[in-house]
Design a protein that fits this description.
By secondary structure, this protein is an alpha/beta fold. It is built from ten helices and eight strands.
């Protein structure tokens, strides 16, 4: 099996020790913004994880692929005996909390150091658009136990009301319009065109809603892949303009306003 040696099971990856684990086709968009990602990405609802647990009869092992710093992993760990959480970014994984039943591994989605026929549920939270789909789905079939399922989800672009929402939209689609990686189009299309070659399961209509301050909105914008690419290509911080607009529009900066993301969930039965 490729990836880090099996003795890495049960450990969190150390920064700088990930090179051998990353496949040639993998692109890491988030290591340089891992702190913002850990602090400002929205959280998923309990309803989502209750649904995920309901689509499999065995709850021995889940594989959370593209786990980042554990936005979905820890909720899965409440429902499965063991969770293997993989990501190509060691910087993301070192920010993940330790849990006795979670194994954090630096490994590409397309080649995971996981035993064959051992996974009851594979999950992909806000990451499927980054993968080599044919190779990843072959890996899912390899590691899946009989009766296993796969679930992948993404949240669409954020919605906020009024002038605040318009300012956030301008940052996303004007200031950063040329900086989004091409894979981001699959998110904009809300996964309608993404390959998903599994027997589809009915899934609930879900969304994410938070009550945020202007500081949180700006922090979230700094966790975008386009923001990282803008900084690398041009220097400077593209979010400072948004912060100035938010100060003018928000009024009391301690007041919280609603930000929403529609959630798109794909779930299927794995045919091995």
């Amino acid at each position: 099996m490729m990836g880090l040696p099996l003795q890495w099971f049960g450990k969190r990856a150390e920064s700088g020790e990930r090179g051998a684990a990353i496949g040639a086709s993998a692109v890491d968009h988030f290591s340089h913004i891992s702190r913002a990602y850990a602090e400002f990405r929205p959280r998923y609802s309990r309803e989502l994880f209750d649904y995920l647990a309901s689509i499999v009869s065995r709850h021995h092992r889940a594989w959370d692929c593209g786990a980042g710093n554990g936005q979905a992993t820890l909720d899965l760990a409440e429902r499965f005996d063991e969770v293997i959480a993989t990501d190509i970014s060691a910087q993301q994984l070192v920010r993940a909390p330790a849990r006795a039943n979670v194994r954090w591994l630096v490994a590409p989605a397309e080649s995971a150091p996981i035993e064959a026929s051992s996974v009851d549920l594979t999950t992909v939270a806000q990451a499927l658009h980054w993968f080599d789909h044919d190779r990843f789905y072959a890996e899912v079939r390899r590691v899946s136990a009989p009766g296993a399922a796969i679930a992948a989800w993404m949240y669409a672009s954020p919605r906020m009301d009024g002038d605040v929402g318009a300012a956030l939209h301008r940052l996303m689609y004007e200031t950063l319009g040329d900086d989004w990686p091409p894979e981001r189009q699959l998110v904009e299309q809300e996964y309608r065109t993404i390959p998903f070659p599994f027997e589809r399961l009915d899934s609930p209509r879900l969304s994410i809603e938070e009550q945020w301050t202007p500081e949180q909105v700006a922090g979230y914008a700094r966790s975008w892949s386009a923001t990282a690419r803008y900084v690398a290509a041009r220097g400077g911080d593209p979010v400072t303009g948004l912060e100035a607009e938010l100060r003018e529009l928000w009024g009391d900066s301690t007041q919280r306003r609603t930000i929403r993301w529609p959630l798109v969930l794909l779930a299927g039965r794995v045919d091995r």
